[in-house]
Write a structure and sequence with these properties.
By secondary structure, the protein is of the alpha/beta class. The chain is 48% helix and 17% strand. The protein has an 8-stranded mixed sheet. An 8-stranded parallel beta barrel has the order 24-25-26-27-28-29-30-31, surrounded by 6 helices. Helix 36 links the parallel strand 30 and strand 31. Helix 6 runs antiparallel to helix 7 and helix 23 packs antiparallel against helix 24. It is elongated, with a radius of gyration of 33 Å. The model has no long low-confidence stretch (mean pLDDT 91).
Length: 901
């Protein structure tokens, strides 16, 4: 019989695959002897079986009964008993944290009889009825799919009727009336009576958690975070402890360090006389842990000790949920806390300095994506700004956009190209699509551990919470600002600062971030410009981790650069060479006419004249590039695109010629040009006359480009430079293509070398962009000094896609349906394109074991793809100049994760 249920005392933190993150950590805390209420975990295996069969496995019910009776025996109470009832919570808990994406139900076991018993045994009737109304509300919404607005409206109406503003101001009579109203809502909208059998409640809640794995918001979150859809969730059944038993009770969330800034110290939210969902939902603005110290110093000191113990045990920033029940502290959850990019770098280095982790471990705690976030611009200091309000800075960054009030508006306007900021009273899990679409999130309620704050931090979105001066009306789509005669609408542009919590009316100018200043101008300049000690610590932490990554990485990092300006940007960011210089970009603008002259040439003399005109221009470009990249390798790809790209558009020229002919003003040159354009036109140019095919069929083209490279190198050598060009032939499919191209290139190099007296023994290699090239890499390697995998075209030719045609046509549906987890043009498709690359590497090195290999597609700057390139043994990656720092960091991380390479 498969084992589907584990007591908290049976597992540990390393069993996340089976017990989920929450269950594994509850088991670990239990094993450490920390104050965790008794309970058990239903495994992810059970969830997967349920999702596969559409029914709960028969063995599960039996095992739940056994585990439940053990808990009852341990506590001396029975689930839902009329006199002294045991109550439990049912919470989801997947392997990877998905805050707010799945379901939770509290107070399972309460019914019309046990609510009376709970009131008697606790001596607090109000608490008992408040707990019962919470159960019906959560159960109705979560398990029975009743719209939560029905319960919220009834609650608000009851408070208005009793002339109170806060939930806990309702008395016993009002709460008991509310229970009956809530049961009537369930009866009307779910078509059943609220279940009175405690075991039915438990089983139905468990199934609801299983089902919540496949909700739309859970799918959206997993797609964004690249979490596999087939993992399933565990279910944690935990004895209830109550934070809503009066002024000596409460609930909170704390972090062992500030997850927003990384600052060390006391950080968290607390609510008196409340249950956990009140903190996370953000429906009440919270107190700080400093307030808890004044209210309950004993519990506060115990909590601080447990926070230190857990951080020491996990060697990382911990996120802890806790409840205080009449002065007794209980821990309900811990996990390695989600944090902002700035906090990730600072905390990693703090832990190194405290000798809790090594520098290699510190590299595993930060990511290239986080470094990328730190490079985003920030609001400039000074200047005129219209400050609307100042609230809680929940997730740093600078965001400017139009106000959007709901998911539909945020998504549609973003798709139309407008930046939006999602503005809500408070967010809940249903708001995830809007949060994903928006550039930032602003809420009127909630603290730094509210749903909006936690999810925004996890996504790297700018977020400001608890802006109490804002009155948000989502129905009317207006925001009123206390003390201001102003109404914000969907046409209003606002700016939010996630570092300071400030909210401004209108646009605010932005400037380079301190980390960008560091990457471009060095540590000293960044420290000089740093505004405060937090910023100085951040910049120093980034510097230490980048230097360590550079020290341990095996992959070299080059840049794709076509101009000296691009090359300088790359060098300033740490590039070790140019991995792709696209020569066709040098033929655009005014030079396009010279290429047209070459195409239109009718005789050898006209062709030579066109080539002669292009030679000094191309040589001048290479002189500048080689000077900029002096003593560093520069891979120059010979012309790749089809020639028709240098000619006028066929349709436009046809229309012009037809009109001119009709008017009797036709220029014979236009007619001749149209004939050439028609001859050069291709139905599928991506697979037509381009790359090596073009070089071999257009007389003089290879010779022109190689001569320009060679003569530029000679000029640099005469000036005392150290040029290191590498000549790359694009779109090779056959060794014979490369052989012909190589012979012609070497002939030119030899001629220029003889004339100049300089040895010009430059490497000649090729791009691997076609599956045939990878499959036959063993023979192609005989003629190649290096391979460079062009993963953009290799993805197109492996999948049979034309990127320009398919991305807008059906990629969204492919991602929604799970064909892709993410676009294969963003992150390398390892199972398909990756295997083609592996084959090319393996076969190429069978022929030449030391053959240098790199990658020059967009994937060269993608964090996940870089890890793959490290594992398959490439020598370098080449990416956009602006992604060079990300590639450096990720190459270092790959070396730590996979040291065997």
């Amino acid at each position: 019989m498969p084992k589907y249920v584990y007591r908290f005392s049976e597992g540990d933190k390393d069993q996340k695959d089976l017990l989920g993150g929450k269950g594994a950590n509850l088991a670990e805390m239990t094993r450490l002897g920390l104050p965790v209420p008794p309970g058990f975990t239903i495994t992810t295996d059970a969830c997967r079986a349920y999702l596969a069969d559409g029914a709960v496995p028969e063995e599960l019910s039996v095992q739940v009964t056994t585990a439940l009776r053990e808990v009852e025996s341990e506590l001396g109470r029975e689930l839902g008993a009329a006199d002294d009832p045991l109550l439990v919570s049912v919470r989801s808990g997947a392997k990877f944290s998905m805050p707010g994406m799945m379901e939770t139900v509290l107070n399972i076991g309460l019914n019309d009889a046990s609510v009376v018993g709970l009131g008697k045994v606790s001596g607090n009737e109000r608490f008992a009825w408040d707990s019962y109304r919470r159960l019906i509300q959560m159960f109705g919404k979560t398990v029975l799919d009743v719209d939560g607005e029905h319960f919220s409206a009834a609650l608000e109406a009851k408070k208005a009727d009793r002339a109170v503003t806060l939930d806990y101001e309702l008395d016993v009579e009002a709460l008991s009336e509310l229970v009956e109203e809530f049961k009537a809502i369930v009866r009307e909208h779910a078509g059943i009576e609220f279940p009175q059998d405690p075991r039915d409640q438990l089983d139905m809640a468990t199934e609801a958690v299983f089902r919540s794995w496949n909700t739309e918001r859970a799918h959206i979150y997993r797609r964004r975070e690249k979490i596999p859809h087939d993992l399933g969730t565990a279910v944690n059944v935990c004895t209830m402890v109550f934070g809503n038993m009066g002024e000596t009770s409460g609930t909170g969330v704390c972090f062992t360090r500030d997850p927003s800034t990384g600052r060390s110290g006391v950080y968290g939210d607390y609510l008196v006389n409340a249950q956990g969902e009140d903190v996370v939902a953000g429906i009440r603005n919270t107190l700080s842990l400093a307030d808890l110290e004044k209210l309950d110093p004993t519990s506060y000191e115990e909590l601080r000790g447990l926070m230190r113990r857990l951080e020491t045990h996990y060697h990382d920033l911990c996120d802890i949920e806790f409840t205080i029940e009449r002065g007794k502290l209980w821990l309900l959850q811990t996990r390695v806390g989600k944090r902002t990019a700035a906090a990730a770098f600072r905390v990693a280095m703090q832990l190194v300095d405290e000798k809790l982790i090594t520098m290699d471990e510190a590299l595993t705690r930060v990511t290239g994506e986080q470094l990328n976030q730190l490079m985003f611009p920030q609001f400039t200091e000074g200047g005129e700004r219209d400050l609307l309000t100042r609230a809680l800075p929940a997730s740093p960054g600078a965001a400017v956009g139009y106000v959007a009030f709901d998911n539909a508006e945020a998504v549609s306007r973003t798709e139309a190209g407008e930046p939006v900021i999602l503005v809500r009273r408070e967010t809940n899990p249903d708001d995830l699509p809007g949060m994903v679409a928006a550039v930032g999130v602003l809420t009127a309620r909630g603290g730094k551990t509210s749903h909006a704050a936690v999810v925004a931090r996890g996504m790297g979105k700018t977020c400001v919470c608890g802006a109490e001066a804002l009155e948000v009306d989502a129905v009317a789509k207006t925001v009123r600002v206390a003390g201001r005669d102003i109404v914000l609408t969907s046409e209003t542009m606002i700016a939010i600062d996630g570092q300071s919590g400030e909210v401004f009316l209108g646009e605010v100018p932005v400037a380079d971030s301190p980390v960008t200043t560091y990457l471009r101008q060095g540590l000293d300049e960044a420290l000089k410009q740093a505004a405060d000690e937090d910023t100085r610590e951040l910049v120093t932490s980034v510097d230490r981790l980048m230097r360590h990554a550079d020290g341990v990485r095996r992959l070299l990092v080059r840049a794709n650069a076509d101009t000296p300006e691009d090359a300088l940007h790359a060098l300033h960011r740490g590039a070790q060479g140019v991995g792709l210089c696209r020569t066709e970009h040098m033929f655009l603008g005014e030079r396009k006419q010279f290429v047209q002259n070459l195409i239109l040439a009718q005789s050898e003399a006209e062709r030579e004249a066109a080539l002669s005109a292009l030679l000094p221009l191309q040589k001048g470009d290479f002189v500048q590039m080689l000077e900029t990249m002096d003593a560093k390798p520069m891979t120059i790809r010979l012309i790749d695109p089809p020639l028709h790209e240098f000619l006028p558009d066929l349709t436009e020229l046809s229309v012009k010629v037809a009109i001119d002919r009709e008017r009797g003003t036709l220029d014979p040159a236009d007619e001749a040009l149209l004939a050439v354009v028609r001859r050069q036109h291709e139905a599928n140019p991506m697979l037509g006359l381009r790359g090596a095919r073009l070089l071999l069929t257009q007389p003089g083209l290879i010779e022109l480009q190689v001569r320009a490279i060679a003569e530029a190198a000679v000029e640099r050598l005469k000036a005392g430079g150290s040029p290191q060009p590498e000549i790359m032939i694009p779109l090779i499919g056959s060794v014979r293509e490369l052989q012909i191209a190589r012979e012609r290139a070497e002939a030119v190099l030899a001629e220029v070398a003889a004339a100049s007296g300089f040895a010009l023994d430059f490497p000649i290699g090729c791009m691997i962009e076609l599956p045939r090239a990878a499959v036959s890499a063993d023979t192609i390697a005989e003629e190649a000094d290096f391979f460079s995998f062009g993963t953009n075209d290799l993805t197109q030719t492996t999948w049979g896609f034309s990127r320009d045609d398919v991305e807008g046509a059906f990629f969204k549906e492919y991602i929604d349906e799970g064909v892709f987890g993410v676009s294969p043009f963003e992150t390398l498709d390892e199972r398909g394109v990756g295997r083609v690359i592996e084959l090319g590497v393996e076969r190429g090195r069978q022929t030449k074991p030391g053959l240098k290999m790199g990658v020059c597609g967009e994937h060269g700057g993608d964090p996940e793809s870089i890890e793959f390139f490290h594992r398959v043994g490439l020598n370098y990656v080449s990416c956009s100049p602006f992604r060079v720092p990300v590639a450096r960091l990720e190459a270092g991380r790959a070396a730590v994760f996979f040291p065997q390479n």
